[in-house]
Amino acid sequence: MTGVKENLQEVKKLKGGKVTFGCGTKGMIQGKGRTSDEQPQLMNVYLVKSAKPLTLTERQSTRSSFRQQLLHVGSICKCLSVRDDVELWHKRLGHMNVRHLTDLVNKEIVRGVPKLKGTEKLVCGPCNQGKQIKVQHKKVADVQSKTVLDLVHMDLMGPMQVESIGGKRYVFVLVDDYSRYTWVRFIRDKSDTMASFKIWALQVITEKGSLKRIRSDHGGEFQNEVMTKFCNEQGIAHQFSAPRTPQMNGVVERKNRTLQEMASNDPWRKHSCEVLG
């Protein structure tokens, strides 16, 4: 807003409306226009008449101060628009990925963005803090067993969006901790997990002689009376990961992700999995 009419052009009269100044006095809004051509262009600038008449000195001071402020604002805007600070533009564009930001500048997708410097050195604290989900767990040895079948990790994936040719939508994954050998069994429902595990466990015990420990989450397909009875009969120790802590069974969790990526990225592998199912 301004109290000097000469600073504005194309002034449109307005009726009603007041502005309260810092000293407590009020000024009447008389109109609205844009700044003159010799000044930085500002639209919708209000023309406000002060209740207290200004002396000639005050008028000149107000006009000079207003122009200086406009020029100062204009110079700031100009400086900011040409700055090549990658961190500044990273924040302006909603914390955009630096690689995408570089492509955006090099391909001139957005006008007015200068060539940016230091893209390889950008470390954004808010981005790191926002992407950090949980405090990291203490590092443990990758292999927690000494022999094959000393510990087997198991988990259930599903239901999948697309069922296999055999009508199966769940994937029962078992990973040997020592060798990382993986068994993948396809089942129709969660309730079939126990039956599938029994068949697998008896086959392994017959071929290899023993199965010492298994580790799973607290899902109902693993923590039930039938599973407990079977493990006790076969001398298998059943370990459970802590609730809401999949890191404790991270071996099979990571294997699940690998299997999903293999199936989604390779059409031949996906078809093979469906045929096996």
Mean pLDDT: 77
The CATH superfamily name of the largest domain is Ribonuclease H-like superfamily/Ribonuclease H
Helicity, in percent? 25-40%
Choose one word for the global shape.
elongated
Number of helices: 8
Computed CA radius of gyration, to the nearest angstrom: 35 Å
Structure characteristics:
alpha+beta, 8 helices, four-stranded antiparallel sheet, 19% strand, five-stranded mixed sheet, 3 domains, nucleic acid binding, Nucleotidyltransferase, domain 5, disordered C terminus, GAG-pre-integrase_dom, 277 residues, 37% helix
Describe this entry's structure for a reader.
This is Integrase catalytic domain-containing protein. Residues 143-277 form the Integrase catalytic domain. One of its GO terms (biological process) is DNA integration. GO terms for molecular function: nucleic acid binding. With 277 residues, the protein is of the alpha+beta class. It is built from 8 helices and 9 strands. The chain has helices spanning 56-82, 86-92, 98-106, 125-131, 193-208, 225-234, 250-265, 267-276, and strands at 8-13, 18-20, 26-35, 45-50, 152-157, 170-176, 182-187, 213-216, 237-240. The strands form 2 sheets. The protein has a 5-stranded mixed β-sheet, with helices on both faces. The longest helix is centred in the N-terminal third of the chain and has 27 residues, at 56-82. The radius of gyration is 35 Å and the shape is elongated. The termini are far apart. Residues 54-59, 69-82 and 267-277 have low confidence and may be disordered.
